[in-house]
Amino acid sequence: MNIQQASEQSDLSVKTVRYYDEIKLVEPARLSNGYRDYSENDVHKLKFLNRAKCLGFSLDDCRQLLSLYEDKNRSSASVKKIAKSKIKEIELKLAELDSMRKTLTVLVNSCSGDDRPECPILEELGKHPPKQN
Amino acid sequence: MNIQQASEQSDLSVKTVRYYDEIKLVEPARLSNGYRDYSENDVHKLKFLNRAKCLGFSLDDCRQLLSLYEDKNRSSASVKKIAKSKIKEIELKLAELDSMRKTLTVLVNSCSGDDRPECPILEELGKHPPKQN
DNA sequence: CCTTGACCTTCCAGTAGCTGGAAGCCTTAC
DNA sequence: GTAAGGCTTCCAGCTACTGGAAGGTCAAGG
Question: What is the pTM of this model?
Fold first, then answer.
């Protein structure tokens, strides 16, 4: 099938699908006119990638997962390890964002939000040394 | 003061400080030999930027906040508006990450993680159409 | 047979926010 | 004088695409 159909079936943009070919994630056959020709299996891989991406895996992670997916001699332990480290990453990011949210909420609540120039948010940003990063 | 001192005082890397000059966020004076010469006020701005960055503001947001910070006729409402929309963004990202975390946790818990190839994580990735993105 | 429109192709540039490295001055200490 | 460390600029690269230009291909209609 042509690239547009593959794109629709995998719910990835045409540009993205072409990009995945370029970086050798999913390389379809080519027709004599140069057009990409996606097989059912190619589309299946594209869907797999989209799903993994939605779960926060990087393209490098995706590449690993895909090769494990296709390796019938894999051990489930190797997949579990990748997934667990991804959970750790996500939890770190969650904690960081939550701390940002808390700080910002306190600041917003202390700001009158009127026409006057006095602003506790800016004062705070100006006063304090950075606590993160 | 020279760029290294400014970098240390603001807790930003030398490269970053130079970059902020390049994108006209904080443009220090120059000595006759071409060296950047940071004033106390410049360093104060660098610190402000670092703090704002830690709270999740993009450099574009930072640019706005900095100009509001320096505008003595600003209204606190305009700052509050930016901060509130940033909180919204952060909350969206939090929800997304939390959903990833939950899904991944379920998958990891259902995976034996041994030497056998059977892996519910990969099966799940292969089976399902994407639900997000 | 020609044209039109919708495909497809490649290639180049740009996004955010830096980071690393090369080549080459400048300054300071020994 | 020279060596080490600063400083400068510029160029490339990172992630994961996206937009757009220039041009080839294909099917339908007149």
Answer: 0.85
